[in-house]
Protein: ABC transporter permease
Amino acid sequence: MDALPLLIATTLSAGTVLAFAALGLLINERAGILNLGAEGMMLVAALAGFATAVHTGNDWIAFAAGMGAGALLAAAFGVLVIWLNTNQYATGLALSLFGTGFSAFMGLRYTKETLPARPEWNYAGLSHLEFVGPALFRQHPLVYVAIALTIALAWFLYRSRAGLVLRAVGESPESAHALGYPVRRIRLAAVMAGGALCGLSGAYISVVYTPLWVEGMVAGKGWIALALTTFATWRPARVLLGAYLFGGVTMLQFHLQGEGVDVPSQILSMLPYLATIVVLVLISRNAAWIRVNMPASLGKPFSPGS
Structure:
């Protein structure tokens, strides 16, 4: 029983990484933009957040730096695909490759840097409650922010006029443009908001989740977050649940190793990616279900004059 609260706590922390990135990508895709550059944005943001934490000693400034780095890269991506109509798939892959290489080069001087011990969080004594305390109430505040953000995003998309406009842009940009909405600017704002959340995810990794900088430390989480949006059929609540599911699979490997399970470590390390493949295969078997839920203009360019 002592291991179960720890597993729940680590699952929430690991799921938060995926939740922020996937919610950001969901905003992009609801506006009709497919960004395959999440991995690169998260790596650059992880470096920006870690470097800022090293020089300032303030985690919240580090998170802001990570969000800024992610939004900046997303803005460059947005200009290319929204105004210059470059291929969204190729541009996203280029962004991912750029972020991987740029972060590796610029991060050389930070590989030996360390951050001070992170504070232990105690919310009105709740962390001392039996079982639920260590499982739920010793988390970094951003874990709870991810939950609140999911609720806020669901309300925004389905209960607000601005969310309706965003979804309209993703479904039929031509109709939204005919009604007088600035489709390109709305899409750019969505892309930058998504990039900022991917940046927050990257900074959370390097500042809280594993407080250090190592080349390639995102380790495919950007791609898992991208798959998670499809797995969740572009719905915020399902994104959060899926993030915790994949987070739990990720942390399960370490707990099994800690319990001395006689399974090769390489097989345990494969579990998160194997789970991703299995889920995508199961979803792909029902193509009509994906088409019903997927934004109709996803990945398609839009030119006001056409």
Q: What stands out?
A: The CA atoms of residues 190 and 264 lie 43 Å apart. The chain has a mean pLDDT of 89. The domain at 15-111+138-293 is CATH 1.10.3470 (ABC transporter involved in vitamin B12 uptake, BtuC). The chain has one domain: 15-111+138-293.
